[in-house]
Automatic annotation (TrEMBL):
Domain of life: Bacteria
Bilayer-crossing regions: none
Primary location group: cytoplasm
Gene, per the UniProt record: tsaD
Protein name per Swiss-Prot or TrEMBL: tRNA N6-adenosine threonylcarbamoyltransferase
EC number(s) stated in the UniProt entry for this protein: 2.3.1.234
Length: 340
């Protein structure tokens, strides 16, 4: 099929995103977040997120169209996240996407949220080389993937987290450190004034007998919480900057070490780092250093495309459309706990 404009809708968590992509090119996107409404609860409240999507859906689509200089009638296909994610939140996005696709008489594509994160990078750096290793690090996922053709081949999981996701670890420790929600960016900011060698937090699954590409962050999370608690029990102020820098160092070290090792083992020349935690400055700088040393090309999408957005879902829809993939039936349902 030819050069149609694909509208992508993302609503799996607390961001309502709409993006417009044609032939691999981002034409415009818009985002609304309910993050502030969840802040006082210390995490995303599913009911609040779903209501916020309902509130933001139409304005966000309208804004994306305006930014792209397009009209509703220019949309040639609709792509929408069907999972994984919060079920109420996904349902709002899917209902909106179905309505648009049906009323415009255009195909609808269901998109896996993680495939969206992978495809985000294509909007900045062009088509992904086949194969490439992708490290997805977000609040819900930490996975190392071997990706071939996103539109045709299944994504191979080399390893996943056995417990907490890296972003979740940042979010939870930040709370114990008294930093604001969401914790990842707050840890990143606090770490600027800290010493990454101040505390040696444990790193799990790095021994010779361990699953080489699995991750575990519950140990470092507990250790960081205990470390902060120790100061409180002694009535001392927690040296948050040092704790944040040391935590960030421990997490970034294991993520980048395993990602580069996977590239080496599978003879892959490109590493793509995506997901919210790819915005972390230490993850970025360590990945840059280690990839350069190993002769691996590193691709990281710009910060705005690293976190949840509609453009990345449109990017997958565009790949599916151009590959001639079968559209989803209008009865398609959400798959909140979708495996990749
Ligand atoms: O991809 P994303 O927006 O949503 C999903 O989880 O799918 O990722 C959000 C996660 C949160 O845990 C947030 O704390 C983390 O990404 N994050 C960061 C940074 N920016 C966002 N973690 C560390 N450093 C950052 N600069
Ligand atoms: Zn995400």
């Amino acid at each position: 099929m030819g050069a149609a404009v694909v509208l992508g809708i993302e609503s799996s968590c607390d961001e309502t995103g709409a993006g417009l992509v044609r032939e691999g090119r981002l034409l415009g996107h818009a985002l609304a977040s309910s993050m502030d409404e969840h802040a006082r609860f210390g995490g995303v409240v599913p009911e609040i997120a779903a209501r916020a999507h309902l509130h933001s859906f139409t304005p966000v689509v309208r804004q994306a169209l305006d930014r792209a200089g397009l009209r509703m009638s220019d949309i040639g296909a609709v792509a929408v996240t069907t999972g994984p994610g919060l079920s109420g939140a996904l349902q709002v996005g899917l209902a909106g996407a179905k309505t648009l696709a049906y009323s415009l008489g255009v195909p609808l594509y269901g998109v896996h949220h993680l495939a969206g994160h992978v495809a985000a990078d294509t909007l900045e750096h062009g088509p992904l080389p086949d194969p490439c290793v992708v490290l997805i690090v977000s609040g819900g996922h930490t996975s190392l993937l071997l990706v071939r053709d996103l539109a045709r081949d299944p994504i191979v999981h080399l390893g996943d987290t056995l417990d907490d996701a890296a972003g979740e670890c940042f979010d939870k420790v930040a709370r114990v450190f008294g930093l604001p929600y969401p914790g990842g960016p707050a840890v990143d900011r606090a770490a600027r004034d800290g010493d990454p060698r101040a505390v040696r937090f444990p790193q799990a699954l790095t021994g010779p007998g361990d699953d080489p590409y699995a991750f575990s962050f519950s140990g470092v999370k507990t250790a960081a919480a205990r470390w902060a608690e120790g100061y409180r029990l002694r009535g001392e102020e927690v040296p948050v900057a040092d704790g944040a820098a040391s935590l960030q160092e421990a997490v970034a070290d294991v993520l980048t070490r395993k990602a580069v090792a996977a590239c080496r083992e599978f003879g892959v020349g490109t590493l793509v780092v995506v997901g919210g935690v790819a915005a972390n400055s230490r993850v970025r700088s360590l990945a840059e250093r280690r990839c350069a040393a190993a002769g691996i090309t590193l691709r990281v999408p710009p910060r705005g495309l690293c976190t949840d957005n509609g453009a990345m879902i449109a990017a997958v829809g565009d790949l599916l459309l151009r590959a001639g993939a079968e559209p989803a039936p209008l009865e398609v349902s959400i798959d909140p706990s979708a495996p990749l």
